[in-house]
Structure formats: structure tokens, C-alpha cells
Amino acid sequence: MKTTLLTSEHYTRSPWKNGGGIFTDIADAHREGSPARDWDSLLWRFASTPIVAPGPFSHMPGIDRLQMVVGGRGLVLKSPTQDFDEREPFTTVRFTGEMEIVTALEAGPVEVVNLMARRGAAEVELDAIQQPGERSLPAGTHLVYAARGDCRIRLGLQDFAISHENTLKVELTEASKLTLVSGLIVLGSIRLVG
């Protein structure tokens, strides 16, 4: 097991693909040997961003997206074929980057986290853990984001404290146990495929 604490003061910022806002980039991975770390070389990315006004989402062909509101409430994603209801915080929605989506804000601005992955290169899951307890983690990369206040977790026999909005990156070569001791975390899980 390898762990890396990613602190909010070291997160980077980048524009949305459509230029409509700014991501706070928390962690990502790109194809080895790619000449540039850009959307074309992206394998997966975990980021947060405010949504302060209704507007269109970026067109991201080949990217699968998971999203969750972590601050505020009342977000709905509207597409021509269906709506994705994120009115309640810590609800995960999954959609494709090809989908035409426009946001609707029913109760003011929100803060969301996104976990994106190149289709066929990585499989991703995004969950909120709000109650103390234990869960199994498979081999792969896991991102433990302190979504509300400071959090304490246990991985195997090791204890970790994670300050608000910081992230513990956990790389596992075999299955392990994660125990939430206190706080509220968002858990992003990535498994590279192919």
C-alpha cells in the first residue's frame, strides 16, 4: 500500500474544456509517454468545481463522468433524453461526456466533485461515506476526500487524519479495508483496464 496526502494548497487550477469555469484539479493520470498532459492523453481525473450559474457542460467524447454535489443543494442536470437529479448533496450521478447537458440551479450555487475516466481505459466509482463503519477496497487507486470538516480513517492497521478538502491518495496492489472513524468522506475508486 502506498499513500500520498494531497493538500488543498497544492491543488492546481485549470479551465473547463468549454472555458465556462475553473476546475480545482486534485489528482489525475495520463497515458505514459504522451507528449502533453491534456484531454487527449487523460486516463482519469478527480476535481472539484463551483457551479454558480446555469449553463452547458463541456463536450468530452470518450469520457465517462461521475459527479456529486458536496456543497449547496438543488442541482439538476438536464439532457434531451433525461434529467440527473443532484438536488440532495452526496448523490452520485453517472453520464457520458458526449451527452448534451445544461445545469439548472434551484437553490443557488453548488460545489461539486467530478471523477472522469477515459472509456475503455479505466473504470471508476464515486461514493459518499457519511457514517462510521468499514468497507472493502479492491486493488487499484482510491481517493479519500474530506468533504465536510476534518476526517479520520483507518486503512488496514494504519490511522490517518485528513483535513477538510484534503485528499488521501491510496494505491493498493491487493484488497484492503477502509474504516471511517469520524467525518464525512467522498471515496473515488479507479481501476485501470486493458
TrEMBL record:
InterPro entries: RmlC-like_jellyroll, RmlC_Cupin_sf, Uncharacterised_HutD/Ves. Signal peptide: none annotated. This is HutD family protein. It comes from Bradyrhizobium betae.
